[in-house]
Amino acid sequence: MKKAKVIIDKDFTIAEIDEKVFSSFVEPLGRCIYGGIYEPGHESADEDGFRQDVMEYIKPLNLTLNRFPGGNFTSTYRWEDGIGPKKERPRRVEVAWQCIETNEFGLDEFAKWSDKNGSDVMMTVNLATRGVLEAMDCVEYCNFEGGTYWSEMRKKNGFEKPLNYKYWCLSNEIDGIWQVGQKPGREYGLLAKEAAKGMKLIDSEIKTVLAGSSSPGQDTFPAFDVEALEESYDFIDYLSVHHYIGNMENDSANYLAKPMVTDRYLDNVAAAIEFVKAKKRSEHEVYISFDEFNTWHSIAREERFEKKWRVAPPLLEDTYTAEDALALGGMLLSVLRHADSVKIACVSELVNCISHIRTRNQGGCWVLPPYYAFLHYTQYGRGTALLTKVDSDVYDSKDYKDVPYLDAQAVVDAQDHITVFAINRSLEEQLEMSLELRGFEGYSVKKHIVLTADDPKATNTEDTPDAVKPAENGNARCENGCVKAVLDKMSWNVICLSK
């Protein structure tokens, strides 16, 4: 049996966990919106066409932000296409995903859906093929009180009060060759600075998000980020970075080690921000917006080019399994342990595309195993991240050395409830975990939730929606200030402690 020791101390904290790290991403890609959150005529649809069976899975996540409308979709998007009477909206060629966009669902509909969902919106403006003025117009439409062209247009469209969107992304993945409107770092930084300046002159309360590197594997990382930051630093508030991991090589042991790349990536992004801050002698703080991350296996397949110009086709609908729950869980723990620098985090995407909530058009709705890891993270991960020291048996995989079998992160909330998230990466053996509580007196285990499966590829379907789901059947116990538990092989664990 594998072994690991964990230590947490009440006096050793990382930072308070920002509420905005419990967020997601909604893009008019494939069936994320059409057939996902929006399907007029579906038996569960409300008066606005929003599927309530989908909402039943989204509501428990208590999402604080949803990023919209993209994503690669943004780089040729005209935000005005998604407002006003639907019958007057244009159909457009959407080149990022090689589809036809009807614009039946746009900014107006997302405002209504977000209000019903109880979440805020992080808007993305197009600085790839449009410019500063169009970005300012969008802020005026959303946030200006009234008496101007765009604010009165908003009122005409049914929104008497300003939407007051606080967070604004200044384009998306503009460093990537796949992006229409790709720009080098300095050129983009200058444009982003002027956009942020103009947007904040309309609404001084907004926060702007600079588009940084698309992945740690980009040849331009971190030079692009540094160059863009050097031109715009004092005008922006967050640096956006993205990261996806997958198991295209079908090597589970190697796959489960990949969240260690996320850890290093976020360390390096934080270092790039600190370098520019020091170089500019600035007192201004810029944080990380980790606003696209997930597991994604079909990232190398170009299915969008095989059958072009369809309306809302099924794209990027990978089958996510029990092992994906652990891989995503590792990325989520990385977000928590970077609570001092990561202040926004959006799992990509919310429904169907690269997602764990699945639907059938005119049919049912179900969730895949990683949904539960994200649900537990949003339910139990709020509070303050504790410095969590792990000493674990290790293994070597194809690409990584000294991979700890145990990945763990602890959180304490305002009521002094402690949650310990723990992943046993071993595909074959249980893991004996000993957790020492320093400075925490009189605690006992209230619940120990376990998500596991005998087969790493086990998953749920519409016909078998409960094949892989969590159970409160863990064996954690507290003895003399120490928590003991034997973690199942290949398992995601949530151990809740209170006095």
Structure description:
This protein has 499 residues and is of the alpha/beta class. The protein contains ten helices and 25 strands. It folds into two domains: 2-10 and 387-498, Sandwich (Immunoglobulin-like), CATH 2.60.40.1180; 18-380, Alpha-Beta Barrel (TIM Barrel), CATH 3.20.20. Helices cover 24% and strands 26% of the residues. Strand 23 (477-479) and strand 24 (482-487) form a beta hairpin. Helix 3 runs parallel beside helix 5 (185-202). The two termini are 30 Å apart. 53% of the residues are buried. The model has no long low-confidence stretch (mean pLDDT 97).
What's the count of strands? 25
Query: How would you describe the shape?
Result: globular
What's the mean pLDDT score? Answer: 97
The major beta sheet can be summarized as:
8 strands, parallel, barrel
Order of adjacent strands in the largest pleated sheet: 3-4-7-8-9-10-11-12
The CATH topology of the largest domain corresponds to TIM Barrel
Calculate the terminal CA-CA distance, rounded to whole Å. Answer: 30 Å
The CATH superfamily of the largest domain is identified as Glycosidases
Q: What's the number of structural domains?
A: 2
Strand content: 25-35%
Oligomeric grouping of the chains? single chain
Q: Can you tell me the CATH architecture of the largest domain? A: Alpha-Beta Barrel
**Poorly predicted runs:** none
* CATH domain class of the largest domain: Alpha Beta
Return Rg in Å. Answer: 23 Å
Which class of secondary structure composition applies to the elements?
alpha/beta
* H/I helix tally: 10
